[in-house]
Structure formats: structure tokens, C-alpha cells
Amino acid sequence: MARFSYSRWDGTQVGFEFGAEDVFEELTDELLQHGDVNQALRRLLQRGFTDRNGEHIAGMRELLERLRQRRQELLDNHDLGGAYEDIARRLRDVVDEERAGIDRLEASARESGDQRRQDVASEAATERRMHLDLLPPDLAGQVQSLQSYDWSDARAQQHFDELMDELRKEMLQSQFNRMSEAMADMSPEALQRSKDMFNALNAMLEAKQAGRDTDRMFSDFMEDYGDMFPGNPSSLDELLEQIAAQMAAMSQMLASMSPEQRAQLQALSDALLEDMDLRWQVDRLGANLRNAFPQMGWDQGRGFSGDNPLGLSEAASLMNELGDLDSLEHLLSQAANPGALADVDIERAQQLLGPDAARSLEQLARMTKQLSEAGLIDQKEGRLELTPRGLRQIGRNALADLFSRLVKDRMGRHTVDRVGVGHERTYETKAYEWGDPFNLSIERTVRNAVGRAGSGTPVRLSPDDFEVERTETLTRTSTVLMVDLSLSMPMRDNFLAAKKTAMALHSLITTQYPRDYLGLIGFGELARELRPQDLPEVSWDYTYGTNMQHALVLARRLLGHQGGTKQIIMITDGEPTAHLLADGSPFFSYPPAPETVQLTLEEVVRCTKERITINTFMLDATGYLRAFVEKMTQLNRGRAFFTTPETLGDYVLVDFLDQKRSQRGGGRRRSA
User: Fold this and answer.
1) pLDDT for the residue numbered 504
2) What's phi and psi for 670, nearest 5 deg?
3) Is 618 helix (H, G, I), strand (E, B) or coil?
4) CA-CA distances (angstroms) from residue 134 to 43, 84, 127, 138, 672?
5) Domain boundaries, the chain
6) Any idea of the CA torsion for 219, 221, 225, 229, to the nearest 10 degrees?
7) Can you tell me the distance from the alpha carbon of 250 to that of 29, in angstroms, rounded to the nearest whole number?
8) Lower CB count within 10 Å: N or C terminus of the chain?
9) Looking at residue 119, what is its pLDDT?
């Protein structure tokens, strides 16, 4: 058996996993507004949302803004001049240490009392001091001069050699920052292996540029040198892109320095790499990669303006971070759907932007998969479309959203005391009377007979023993919902409310009143019947005209084939401004032409004669609309509601339910 453990809530536990239905609920308004799954996902991707745990999932707009803020923060806080100054300072320390060593040797010779030794020491000291005094002013020249210098102090020489090895490592790592520590090994064997690697890499890149097959070359290369690339690239293109990004970052760092700083570091790099016989290989690789990846902004300078100086390795790491920010920004800005985020390195995104942003990216990336696996959307011919289940879920979401805003005492089902004839059982019984349906309750009837005649068999029944089951009279309602699709609806922000109401009413009737009929008509310049499955994709008309006359004609025809109580629910924000001419073409006039108003009212009269009630819900009611609706209600005895987009759905649903309850109450009688 499964075992469960419980603990007190301390605020750290995750309450609910954000699933497909939660994502779909976030999409509902977008789907109703535009009817396009792909566009709805793009919009949700851009704006983000809040999950059921109350945790904010940042969208693309917010994440891109965070990226830009992080980049600006780095530029405002740091100064690349430190890369040059740090090396120069450390080299000055070595020279000062050597000068102190010269002084010590000279002092030691004087203390010995040996004149000849004093003369030799003095001559050597003078020569060395002159060499140090005449060191070139530039950093690269000082390094080259000291490499051939005859050191007097062993510790100073050791520190110089260590500094040179460290600078070589930093120079290589600044250009190949994410290669493994194998690049940092300065032993002769490791240096030779690095040279061989560069040579093989250049040969492979040149073979690729020449159009030759490089699959075997890449396989052999990774077998020989794969340990030097911890990113474990799976293809030559991936390998080259990684290296190109590092070299482009170094190029950008140099471009971000002052001309003097750039010249100093470039010369120093040449001197150090020339010493290892690597300069030619690195330059060759750089030229090849510039040709292969020209879009990487090789010479793009950065506007550093801070006071925090950085060393060479720190500057290289910073440039790599800026490069990664650029890459992530490009990927996010180009993401047209959640699936495009699958290429994001979540671990690196967390390092750049923090855990909250990484979690947001993970959630956004799996939205499409969640919806597909739940059967709410499907891919057809390269596009995402709603499934029948998704269509039903939109209606349920719209209905739940509208009901959630209603006062509790007006929600849900309400019991009614009155009962009558029908086929829905109430699980109550009564003594049979003449005229009642003979829905005999066997249990109660036999019990009555036994109670009257006593136990024993056979049990003899008499008419006084009969009890029948009470049943509830059900009234069938046939409704046509007419939704204004004229251009004024979206212009006045009324379209989404009307469409959501249509979806909610359809969901309510099909789930709670399956014997009822609901027809749907959209009307603009012309009217047309709508299928429920087409509702999410229905959009407004891009032509002017509110053709109520045509819509009433279609609604009357639809209801002519139905029984029960008949009603039309009309949602509109404008008076009738169009009607059909004799040839079936539309006529439009604003302000409304008298002929349009007259023909529309004639249709109202026809509906009234066929006992069809017209209930009108007006949005942004103008004087024209109010006057027309008042005239219409006088003719039809229907009702008119002045409402807003925020309360439209509440009014329609509550009115529909109130009518159902009144019909059920008025249509019941006791079988007495």
C-alpha cells in the first residue's frame, strides 16, 4: 500500500505542480480574443503569468529587460584598464625585487673586504641597473627585454618565470576560456600537444571550408583532443562555434580598451605566444573562424565606464559573460514559440540571471509539450490547433471565470419544492391518484399491502395500496445567441467579453441542460450561423455595419425547427445600421436609415408572433441604441440590460439560470 507522510506547512513546500490545465487557463482569454493557438502561446510567452503557487513566471519581455539591465550593470561597474595595469604592476614588483637583489650582492661584496670581488660586483651591478633603467616603456618590450636579462636575484628570476607562465596561461585562457585545464599546462609536452591540436583544428576547418567531408576528421580529432573541450561538442559546427565565441570575446575586449591599452596587450600577447611558437597557429585559427562566423561581432567594442579595474583573466571572464548575455538575448528575442526555448542552456541562464529566471525559462519551454500531452492541442500541417477536448476546456474555463465573479447565493443549482409530471425521478413517492403516470413504486406498494392485510403469501394488492414515484416536469428552452461582430466591438474593447460569454453559455447548456438547444449567430454587415467548434477562431468583421435584421431572420429560422420556450439573446454595442436588400446584398447607413430600423422592427414583430422572446444586452449604449431597444421591447415584451464588458457574462448567465428556474417552477404541479 502507498504510504504518505504529512508535516506542518512552513512556507517552503510547493503546493501544486503547474500542469496543462493551468497553462490552458492562462491561454483562454488569448484564445478567445484571437482564436489562434500559436498566437496565444506567443503572447503568453511574451507576458508571462503567475502559477497556482503564487509564483511569478517571467515572460520574454521581462527576461530581456533583466538581460539588458545585467549587461549595463557590468559595463557601469568595471574598467578594462585594469588588465594592463595589473600586469604592469606585477612586473614592476619583480623589477624592484631584482634591484633589491643587486643591492644585496653589492653590499655583500663590500662586507667581504675583497677589492677584486667588490670591483666585479660593482661593475655587474652597474650593468644590470642600466639594463633595468633602459627597459622599454611598453609592457611587451619590457617582457622581451627581461627574457634575455641575466638575473642577479634567484627569487626575482623565479617570480618573473612564474609571472610569464601565468601570463601565457591567461593569454590562452582569455581566448579559449572554456577549454579544459590541459591548455593551462606549460610543460614542454603539454605545449607541443596544444600546438598539434591547433594544427589539426585549422586543418579540419580549412577542409570544411573547401567543401570536403570532415566527419572522420572530427571523430579522430575528438578521440585525440576531446579532453581539452569539456563542453563535449557533438559536431564540428558546435565545436567551432564554441571556440569562435571565445575568440570573438577576446577581440571585443581589445576593442573595448583605449588604443594605448589595446596596443600594449596585443604586443604582449604576440610576445608571449611567439615564445611558445603558438602565435601563427592562433592567428590562423582566428582568421578562419572570422570567415566562418562573421556575425559574432568580432571587433564590437563595449562601453565600460566603471571604476573597478579588472585583471586579464577577470576581464576575459567578464567578456565571456557579456557574450553569453548577448547570445541569450538573441535567442529569447527570436523565440516565436515555447519550443524555441529548448535550446537555452538553463544552467548558464541561472548563472547569468539567477534561479527565478531559469525556473521561468524551464516552465515556458515545456508549455507546448504539456498541452499536447494533455490532448488540448495538436499539430496539423506545422501549426498548433485546438482539439475537441481543448474546445470544451475553453468553454469550461470561460464559464468558471464568469461564475467565480458571481455572488455565492446566485451561483449553482437551486432546489425547487414544487414537483409534477415528467420523466426525471425525484426519489419521492405518493399515493396514486387518477391521472397520475403509472410509475409504480413496487417496494412501497407491497409494503402498504402487507401492512393492510398482514404477512403471508400471496400478497394481494388493492388500488389503495398503490404508490407512484414523483417526477419533475422539465421545460425545454431553445435559445439563439446573437453576437455583434461589427468593427465597433473590438474598437470599444467589447469583443472579448462577448465571445467569452458565448463560450460560457455554450458550455453551461451542453453540460447542465443537454436537452436544451443553443444556436449561435454572428452579425456585422451580414449575419451568419456559427458552429460551436468554430467559436474560438471567430473574429470580428472588418467592414462597417450592424445587421440585426439579417441576424433575426436567421435566428427565427433556427428556432422554427425547435420546441419548448424560445428566446433570442442579443449582445450588441450599436443600433441597427444595415439590412438586406431585395437582391440579398447588404445596405449600410450611419446614422441608421429609417428603412433599416423599420425592417429590423418588422423582424421583431415576426419573432413576437412566433412567441420568441428577445432579451438584449447592450454595451456602451448610445442614445440611438437605447431608443431602438426600448421600441423593440415594447413590441416583443422582452427585456433590456445595460451592462459593461466586465459584467456582461454575469448578467447573461444569471438571467438564463433565473429563467430556467422560473420555467421549472411555473411548469410544475403536484400530481394530486
Assistant:
1) 82
2) -80, 135
3) strand
4) 67, 20, 11, 11, 125
5) 20-77+326-386, 81-303, 424-472, 477-666
6) -70
7) 48
8) N
9) 86
